[in-house]
Amino acid sequence: MQELEGSLLDQTQILWGSGMSYGHGHGNANLPLLLAGGKALGFKHGKHVDFNLPTIGQYNLTEPLEHYRICTRPVDDAARLNNLLFTMCRAAGVEIDRFNDSLRSLSEVL
């Protein structure tokens, strides 16, 4: 379907994932999320953004408790889901200054 600035798909955003990274402990940090956005919204495509790596360097999967700790507590307190939701609102043209406890728009994805 054609819109004024391209197709309807070019104007679409889809966020898919989970609000829990580790269901057994109800961990809400290190969330597995996938954001797909149309090219007309300005999203940077084809990349994986991991906000933990600048702090931890690499994952150590040989130590289960260390990995579990990453899934239950934020490594970077500034890496918030509401930052992503704020970024998505701004991409859709919603003129807001913040979304709940968001700190910034994510230049990593937009």
Provide an overview of this structure.
The chain has 110 residues and is an alpha+beta fold. The chain has one domain. 22% of the residues lie in helices and 13% in strands. The protein is built from three helices and four strands. The chain has helices spanning 53-56, 64-72, 81-91; strands spanning 2-3, 6-7, 13-17, 33-37. The strands form two sheets. The chain has a two-stranded antiparallel sheet with strand order 1-2. Strand 1 (2-3) and strand 2 form a beta hairpin. The radius of gyration is 16 Å and the shape is elongated.
**Count of β-strands:** 4
Question: Based on helices, strands and strand pairing, what is the structural class?
Answer: alpha+beta
Order of SSEs? EEEEHHH
The pLDDT mean sits at: 88
General shape: elongated
Concise account of the structure shown:
The protein is an alpha+beta fold and 110 residues long.
Main features:
elongated; alpha+beta; two-stranded antiparallel sheet; 13% strand
Set out the fold topology.
Elements: E1 2-3, E2 6-7, E3 13-17, E4 33-37, H1 53-56, H2 64-72, H3 81-91
Antiparallel strand pairs: 1-2, 3-4
